[in-house]
């Protein structure tokens, strides 16, 4: 059975060989590795060209300003790994944040309002999931409908920016905590929002890699029919990913509103696409079946860092940001295609 | 033979799909410590019966008893929990996951910190060792494995549950001889430990080698249950197809009697046709009324030559002449307009359009040739369909069903009908009989012989060399991406002649 053994499996993994095996990136991880390389490359380039990038305060701000995007990207990783898509997350942020802030201003208990903000996301995700799983609506269409619904509801509630009172507990989630007091304001600063994002990433990582539901997410992305034949709970899992994505969008609304201090119906337009871009840049295949939640975090940070570099440069018009985002995205999609082609051989 | 205790008793099972009765009062009894073969043509209802047993399909009437207890079907997960494990074909695994994940998913060993991957890999390695795959790294990605290893991984997935009932649905179709023996040995081992086994395969030799008992289905009906020792090959085949095996033998002698002599200009002439990295420049002539078989191993260039001739791939060297006119085939459509029709070996990906009905699939190519501005009228369509219903023994009830719901043999016939509707002068059939049952094979082979009689030049490609020998007037032998010779078929030519020819060509030197 000569076909059964690969050359690497024949030789015992000893010494250098074992090391080489560990270092050699697997095809699956290649796009994610590339995202890390690009991220590091951007930092090195930024430091060389503009200076003051590898600094505590710059990197702290990068995390603070992108915590909500990281949370969204984590949610979309679940959906995209199953081979689906969720276009509603940007609109969920709008409806959730506007509703939450209005309730706080109306005298609701702020903690209860925050919980409700997350639950609004949960509700949107649940409806998307039901449409997709039980009414067999294409994920693209189902979540597109939810996107219009969410945006419309937000606009019906208010078209003005709704300010959060400065003394509200919601604002405390965006409060900057100085962890390390460096010279010349070069401090390590975190917000509770960043900690929430970190917790979300850790929980998602655990769920995707260490639970049956998580592995089922990957199996569905590989082939839904196979997953069903293997006896895996396909319906339940597909519902779960949209509920997770929706709930995380609600959570992202909390984190973002806490930082900004106000909510508006036009908040989050196009963020679903940023989150999808972050996920793809981070190495998740749009066709499903492969991807890493940590890759999506790197992808979100690549996008955030790009904005920082463009601001620092000063010469690049801000309008060019989307062109550069598109370019990076294209490179990564092409890279994925190359990987898929290699896999097929 | 000791009569084991019945583990599964299915009686009067009736299943309908959108009003069509696909199983009609079928019985099946599986006993512990016994290998039971489920036999029947494609479309006889074998997969449906398995679906009814594992609970993936709803049963209209009849009952399923497991250890004497009546049970309503409730899905794969539940039947797995009851100890009924199914080995599906290797394509039903998850390509992105590792071997260990594919084996263990759904039954992972879990510790305090979620899934314990180390324990899972160890358990996987244990099961793989039983299958003779001790050296396969459970951490490898499934997509990096050959189809044969994937199939054994699918078996491992079923074994990991220590099932009481094991269902093997075509488990050997992607395995080589040695691997088949390994699998059969494992299956026998399980039988001896008291597992009830249901074995489904198209390979009659394997069935006779391993089965203790057989249940035969035909057209959704129960034909009978037999002890394997009470049946011989011919009995079984005639029970399966309701037709005499003598028909196949007659076909061979008919073909031999059909004396073909090349006269006039060739219908198709290829000179130095080739494509870098795919096929070395090859010369070939096809004449009217001739069946030319391409023989060679997979990857020998037989499919590649067919694809170049059928316009599915563009040649980068050589010339192709059809009826004396030089043609440049840029696409299969261009080939069709030059009266060359190609039936690809990838039936599902490149052949049928799954969501369309059989009728629409048949009409497709002809409609494409005529152009969209001149649609075929319903009447013309019906006339066309009528012709092929009869010629290919298609069932009228299938004709308006989505083709993906039909059996492989029926799909292959419909693909053939689609090509014939274009009235080709050259018909290239790449593996038209792979994975289909004997009845459909016979229908297709008969049709090929008939077409040649009507003056079509037919290229017939099959891994089953007996079929190539049975049908061809002339056999082109390919190896390592080049044509190594041609044989004129006759009573002296057998499968061994071709095998020797391929084997003798060790140094790759052309030998005529």
TrEMBL record, chain A:
It is a multi-pass membrane protein. Its main location: membrane. InterPro entries: ABC_transp_permease. The chain crosses the membrane at residues 30-50, 62-81, 87-104, 111-131, 188-208, 239-258, 279-310, 322-340. Coiled coil: none annotated. Keywords: Cell membrane, Membrane, Transmembrane, Transmembrane helix. It comes from the Bacteria. It holds the Pfam family BPD_transp_2. It is found in: Cell membrane. Signal peptide: none annotated. The keyword Cell membrane applies. This is ABC transporter permease. It comes from Glycomyces niveus.
Automatic annotation (TrEMBL), chain B:
The keyword Transport applies. Keywords: ATP-binding, Nucleotide-binding, Repeat, Transport. InterPro entries: AAA+_ATPase, ABC_carbohydrate_import_ATPase, ABC_transporter-like_ATP-bd, P-loop_NTPase. The keyword DNA damage does not apply. One of its GO terms (molecular function) is ATP binding. Residues 8-244, 251-505 form the ABC transporter domain. SMART domains: AAA. PROSITE patterns: ABC_TRANSPORTER_2 (PS50893). It holds the Pfam family ABC_tran. PANTHER family: CARBOHYDRATE TRANSPORT ATP-BINDING PROTEIN MG119-RELATED, GALACTOFURANOSE TRANSPORTER ATP-BINDING PROTEIN YTFR. This is Sugar ABC transporter ATP-binding protein. It comes from Glycomyces niveus.
């Amino acid at each position: 059975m000569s076909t059964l053994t690969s050359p690497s499996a024949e030789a015992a993994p000893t010494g250098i060989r074992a090391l080489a095996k560990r270092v050699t990136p697997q095809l699956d991880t290649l796009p994610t590795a590339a995202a890390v390389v690009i991220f590091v490359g951007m930092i090195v380039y930024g430091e060389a060209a503009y200076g003051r990038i590898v600094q505590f305060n710059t990197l702290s701000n990068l995390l603070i300003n992108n915590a909500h995007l990281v949370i969204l990207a984590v949610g979309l990783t679940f959906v995209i790994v199953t081979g689906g898509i969720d276009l509603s997350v940007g609109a969920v942020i709008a409806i959730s944040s506007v509703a939450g802030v209005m309730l706080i201003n109306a005298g609701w208990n702020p903690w209860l309002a925050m919980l409700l903000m997350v639950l609004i996301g949960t509700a949107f995700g649940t409806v998307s999931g039901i449409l997709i799983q039980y009414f067999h609506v294409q994920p693209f269409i189902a979540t597109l409908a939810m996107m219009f619904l969410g945006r419309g509801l937000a606009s019906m509630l208010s078209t003005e920016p709704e300010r959060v009172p400065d003394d509200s507990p919601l604002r405390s989630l965006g409060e900057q905590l100085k962890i390390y007091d460096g010279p010349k304001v070069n401090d390590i600063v975190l917000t509770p929002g960043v900690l929430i994002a970190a917790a979300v990433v850790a929980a998602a990582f655990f769920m995707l890699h260490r639970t049956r539901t998580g592995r089922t997410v990957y199996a569905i992305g590989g082939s839904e029919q196979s997953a069903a034949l293997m006896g895996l709970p396909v319906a339940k899992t597909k519902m779960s990913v949209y509920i997770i994505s929706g709930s995380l969008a609600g959570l992202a609304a909390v984190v973002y509103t806490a930082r900004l201090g106000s909510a508006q119906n036009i908040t989050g337009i196009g963020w679903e696409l940023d989150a999808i871009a972050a996920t793809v840049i981070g190495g998740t295949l749009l066709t499903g079946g492969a991807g890493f939640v940590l890759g999506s975090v790197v992808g979100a940070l690549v996008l955030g860092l790009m904005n920082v570099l463009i601001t620092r440069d000063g010469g690049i018009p801000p309008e060019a940001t989307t062109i550069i985002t598109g370019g990076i995205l294209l490179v990564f999609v092409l890279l994925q295609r190359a990987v898929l082609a290699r896999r097929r051989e | 033979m000791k009569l084991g205790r019945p583990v599964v008793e299915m009686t009067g099972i009736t299943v309908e799909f959108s009003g069509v009765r696909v199983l009609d009062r079928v019985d099946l009894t599986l006993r512990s410590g016994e290998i039971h073969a489920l036999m029947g043509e494609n479309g006889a209802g074998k997969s449906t019966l398995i679906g009814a047993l594992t609970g993936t399909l709803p049963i209209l009437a009849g009952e399923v008893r497991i250890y004497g207890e009546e049970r309503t079907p409730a899905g794969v997960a539940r039947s797995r929990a009851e100890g009924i494990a199914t080995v599906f074909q290797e394509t039903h695994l998850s390509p992105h996951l590792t071997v260990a994940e594919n084996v263990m998913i759904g039954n992972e060993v879990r510790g305090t910190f979620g899934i314990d991957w180390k324990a899972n890999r160890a358990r996987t390695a244990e099961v793989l060792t039983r299958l003779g795959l001790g050296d396969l790294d459970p951490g490898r990605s499934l997509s990096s494995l050959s189809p044969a290893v994937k199939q054994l991984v699918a078996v491992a997935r079923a074994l990991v549950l220590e099932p009481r009932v094991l269902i093997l649905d075509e488990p050997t179709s992607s395995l080589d001889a040695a691997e088949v023996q390994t699998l059969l040995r494992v299956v026998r081992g399980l039988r001896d430990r008291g597992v009830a086994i249901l074995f489904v395969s198209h390979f009659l030799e394997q069935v006779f080698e391993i089965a203790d008992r057989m249940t035969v289905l035909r057209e959704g009906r129960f034909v009978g249950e037999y002890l394997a020792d009470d049946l011989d090959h011919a009995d079984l085949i005639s029970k399966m197809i309701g037709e005499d095996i003598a028909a196949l033998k007659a076909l061979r002698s008919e073909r031999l009697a059909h004396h073909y002599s090349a006269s006039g200009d060739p219908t198709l002439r290829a000179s130095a046709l080739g494509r870098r990295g795919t096929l070395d420049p090859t010369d070939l002539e096809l004449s009217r009324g001739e069946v030319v078989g391409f023989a060679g191993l997979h990857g020998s260039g037989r499919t590649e030559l067919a694809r170049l001739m059928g316009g599915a791939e563009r040649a980068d060297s050589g010339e192709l002449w059809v009826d004396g006119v030089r043609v440049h085939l840029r696409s299969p459509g261009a080939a069709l307009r030059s009266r060359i029709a190609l039936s690809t070996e990838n039936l599902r990906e490149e052949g049928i359009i799954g969501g369309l009905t059989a009728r629409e699939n048949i009409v497709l190519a002809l409609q494409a040739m005529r152009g969209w501005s001149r649609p075929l009228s319903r009447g013309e369509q019906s006339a066309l369909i009528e012709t092929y219903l009869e010629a290919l023994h298609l069932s009228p009830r299938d004709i308006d069903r989505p083709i993906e719901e039909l059996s492989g043999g029926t799909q292959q016939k419909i693909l053939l009908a689609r090509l014939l509707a274009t009235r080709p002068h050259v018909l290239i059939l790449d593996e038209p009989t792979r994975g289909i049952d004997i009845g459909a094979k016979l229908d297709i082979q008969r049709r090929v012989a008939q077409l040649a009689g009507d003056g079509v030049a037919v290229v017939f490609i099959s891994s089953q060399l007996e079929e190539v020998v049975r049908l061809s007037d002339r056999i082109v032998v390919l190896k390592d991406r080049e044509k190594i010779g041609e044989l004129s078929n006759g009573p002296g030519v057998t499968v061994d002649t071709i095998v020797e020819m391929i084997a003798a060509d060790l140094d790759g030197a052309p030998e005529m």
